[in-house]
Design goal:
The chain contains three helices and 36 strands. It is mainly beta.
């Protein structure tokens, strides 16, 4: 089988999350495999670990990032369409300092090379993700010989802290953290490794022209413009205990990493610094018109029921447009307007986000929804009365939450999968079910139970070239189809 690959988080370098084929019916669990061999549950039974998205080749090899130990240990492994293990590679990747456990991700290039993070800021790669006998090689953005001369020191000093994103030419981009005093003179920032193996980097503080900026935001995958000329990255500060990091969204030249545009990430209601949390996996997403979307937390904490905001910029980041009414730990997916038969507006595309209204964390009513929004039309926000993106469709979670009387369980996605062929969206829930949300009927038209459900960090949805849907629940990746 040859079809559209699912490259990484959000499917492509714009994080549009659109499928290239009609998804199969949610009839059964075709196969499953753990993504964490030692899940560290909290005393309340929550699982505060962000898991990486599978990458799926055009020939339907599913590459799964796996956490192998309670606090350390990672590998990435390839499975056939039947779930059989084809190959496996251990990574020496070391997590950065964290609160919620950050994600360990893999990324597929258009040339079918698979990348994964290793220790010391290096990346591991295989030139043919489908080939069981392919060799595993390494690349280091600051120089392989520099790393080899003091590998243990660099392993302790340099850490990749975001998913890796590949552009159409096979150049890759990722954020990294570098401790002061490292021998290569690195400052935490953004790295680029060209398809030719040549590496470069730029410091986050220098790029933002703000000495308090410390790094690229944790877990936030860089995004690439459709014309491949611009890389969008979020950068943030370290924050003292009890406060939230602030930050910027940067537009960088994809070849030189020079700054092309910069926007301070502000709460649109108060025009005050928004929260750019390292517990979030929000990544920039790029619309077909080049507009850029990025989710932040509100200021002050809880003033928007813990929902945050979806900030909306033009391609240069110079113009701030209508925000969305939810942004926390969520990446906006792109919905062709033709997918929604009831839509009569003028926007060529819509955006899909989570729309939880947190009861236990933010003071909301617990009526947790998902939403399709019109980025070009405004309505009054029901919480703040700020002008926000108009709700085109919303749907409430179907399962009462026993821990929050009157509320329903949270939608458990940091990005959904958009299926233009069946006019539906695939969404995962903390009730343990995977759902199909029909745009034609605005109903949850299909569902399948994956687990008994639990509170967990939000997870991505992915789709293979055969239309099988992949969702993560309770530290297990499930392949679902007919």
């Amino acid at each position: 089988m040859n079809g559209q690959a699912w490259q990484s988080y959000g499917g492509d370098a714009q994080h549009s999350a659109q499928t290239g084929i009609a998804t199969q019916s949610l009839g059964r669990i075709v196969w499953r495999t753990p993504v964490d061999l030692a899940p560290p549950y909290t005393t309340q039974g929550y699982l505060l670990v962000h898991y990486g998205s599978p990458a799926i080749t055009a020939k339907n090899t599913v590459i799964v990032p796996v956490k192998t130990g309670a606090q350390a240990g990672f590998r990435f492994e390839a499975h056939s369409a039947s779930g059989a293990l084809a190959w496996s590679v251990n990574s020496d990747y070391i997590l950065p300092a964290h609160n919620w456990t950050p994600s360990f991700n893999v990324t597929l290039t258009p040339g079918n090379r698979i990348y994964a993070p290793g220790a010391g800021g290096k990346v591991l790669y295989r030139d043919d993700a489908d080939a069981a006998g392919a060799s595993t090689q390494t690349a280091v953005f600051y120089g392989a010989s520099v790393y080899a001369a003091a590998s243990a020191a660099y392993d302790a000093a340099v850490t990749i802290n975001t998913p890796i994103t590949s552009d159409a030419q096979g150049n890759i981009y990722f954020g990294f953290i570098a401790k002061a005093g490292n021998g290569a003179g690195l400052a935490s920032g953004i790295a680029r490794i060209g398809a030719d193996g040549v590496g470069s980097w730029a410091g986050a503080a220098t790029l933002s022209a703000d000495a308090q900026i410390s790094k690229v935001a944790m877990n936030s995958a860089p995004a690439i413009s459709k014309d491949q000329n611009t890389v969008y990255v979020a950068v943030n500060t370290e924050a003292p205990s009890g406060t939230r990091p602030r930050g910027y969204l940067l537009a960088l030249d994809s070849k030189t990493l020079a700054v092309k545009g910069k926007a301070a990430l502000l709460d649109p209601r108060l025009n005050a610094p928004a929260g750019v949390s390292d517990d979030s996996t929000a990544a920039p997403s790029v619309g077909p018109d080049g507009d850029v979307y990025f989710g932040v937390l509100e200021a002050p904490s809880g003033s928007h029921n813990g929902r945050g905001w979806l900030l909306h910029f033009d391609a240069t980041l110079a113009q701030l447009k209508i925000p969305g009414s939810f942004g926390w730990d969520d990446t906006a997916a792109i919905v062709p307007a033709s997918m929604v038969p009831s839509y009569s507006g003028s926007s060529p595309y819509l955006v899909m986000t989570k729309y939880n209204n947190y009861q236990r964390a933010g003071g909301g009513d617990g009526q947790n929804k998902v939403a399709v929004l019109d980025p070009g039309t405004a309505q009054a926000d029901s919480i703040s009365q700020l002008s926000v993106m108009k709700e085109v469709l919303t749907i409430l979670g179907p399962t009462p939450d026993p821990a929050n009387p009157g509320g329903v369980t949270e939608w458990c996605i940091n990005i959904a999968a958009i299926d233009p062929f069946t006019k539906s969206i695939l969404v995962n829930s903390e009730d343990g079910y995977l759902y199909r949300w029909s745009m034609a009927s605005n109903t949850l038209s299909e569902k399948i139970q994956l687990t008994s459900g639990l509170g967990e960090s939000y997870t991505p949805v992915a789709v293979g070239p055969d239309g099988v849907v992949y969702a993560i629940n309770n530290a297990v990746l499930f392949a679902v189809g007919k």
